[in-house]
Amino acid sequence: MINEKSDGNFPAHGPNPLKPNALKQLQNEVKKHKATLGIIFDADGDRVFFIDNRGRFVDPDVISRLLIWHLKPKKVVIDVRTGWLVRKFKIKNSKLKIHESSVGHYFIKKLMRKTNADLGVERSGHYYFGPNIHNQKNLYFDSGILAAIETINAVSKLPYSLADFSDLFPPLYRSGEINIKIGQPQNIIKKIEKKLKNQAIKTSRLDGLTMEFNPSASPGKAWRFNLRPSNTEPLVRLNIEATDKRFLDNFLKKIYSLISN
């Protein structure tokens, strides 16, 4: 264990695990001790992220996929940012149902209660557990600590390492959440939807604007994005996922161009 002594000044790194340099110390320790995995929490322990045995950051969608395989839930709630790795997950002989929610604790927990879901996952590192997990009366709470315990249990059952598990999946390229300051966010979202609607194969207005593209001219190349307004600030939050790094970069440029114009 590192940085185990409480210090509100956070001398090792800031309390947000996703900020630049926050992971470096843990990555170095994992490689130094040849650890099976590394675990890092945010300040209050409700978010958790993981480092694999090679010292690499593990995408939250990979952890979500691992937990679904391990816990075998019948119903899972995701949010609009969750990527294809979880959305397209099918288990042989399983009746797994995936329900999509708006972003945030309130919406995830509300939909879990409505659908009697067993598990909820967010790319933000939040993991929610329903009453059917372990036959306990978990009141749809999110817990970084329980997520860490179950991830350790899952990794212990793998016939290979966490790094090898991550490498089983085709590469996907993600922008992370990008905050773009702009006045009248709703007008911008409507403008982008109008501009791109004829190119999209799927469009959703569940939370902001989500669009998915799979051009026939580029087999195997696809991308999706979610653009949603902040509820408290004059900005939009953008998340992009693509099967090709060039598609990600080009689409990011296109979005910035549409916003600036």
TrEMBL record:
Keywords: Isomerase, Magnesium, Metal-binding, Phosphoprotein
InterPro entries: A-D-PHexomutase_a/b/a-I/II/III, A-D-PHexomutase_a/b/a-II, A-D-PHexomutase_a/b/a-III, A-D-PHexomutase_C, A-D-PHexomutase_C_sf
Alpha-D-phosphohexomutase C-terminal domain ranges (all copies): 177-254
GO molecular function: intramolecular phosphotransferase activity; metal ion binding
Cofactors named for this entry: Mg(2+)
Protein name as annotated: Phosphomannomutase
Domain Alpha-D-phosphohexomutase alpha/beta/alpha positions: 2-55, 70-166
Signal sequence, renumbered to the chain: none
Pfam families: PGM_PMM_II, PGM_PMM_III, PGM_PMM_IV
GO biological-process terms attached to the record: carbohydrate metabolic process
